[in-house]
Write the structure tokens for this entry.
Amino acid sequence: MKKMHPMIKEVLITEEDLQARINTIAAQVSEDYAEKDVLLVAVLKGAVYFMADISRKMTCPLSMDFMAVSSYGNESRSSGVVRIVKDLDVEMAGRHVLIIEDIIDTGLTLKYLVRNFEARGAASVEVCALLLKEGAQEQEVRWKYVAFEIPNEFVVGYGLDFAESYRDLPYIGVLKPEAYQS
Ligand code: IMP
Ligand code: MG
């Protein structure tokens, strides 16, 4: 078991709550895609734990692929630019795609990805996000599954980072102010 990280001010979502809710969403997805052979596309690196946990609980036929985009530098705010850093390996045309995302903040990344996948001829494109930041969406994004809505605060853990740290925490937490100073 990991100890509480000294730079975490508050735990917003515990490991138990994350896993319980992910089981529920996995069951919903499995029902909705029972006949569809879904292609799960996770956005690296923030969605790795979510992808690993939710896919393991799904009972529908599925395959997975990973993509890396960058809309943030080592900062806690959006640069407004989405760039593909690593593209998919598999052909997307005709596939039912479910994007697995860590968090919808401004919505910029997802808006770009949904459009991009539709342009590649996906049969359907839907979004499954772990977190949705309340009131933060500047872009119109359409999502099918959201595990948790959180206040408009910067969070880390369970895949989410600040300057590449804290991804390995098993819970979602808020950093102490001093964490931003180093
Ligand atoms: P968006 O394009 O603003 O919706 O957010 C894109 C990406 O920003 C997410 O996939 C995350 O990697 C990152 N991000 C947004 N909010 C947070 C946060 O609170 N903590 C850590 N990363 C975040
Ligand atoms: Mg990030």
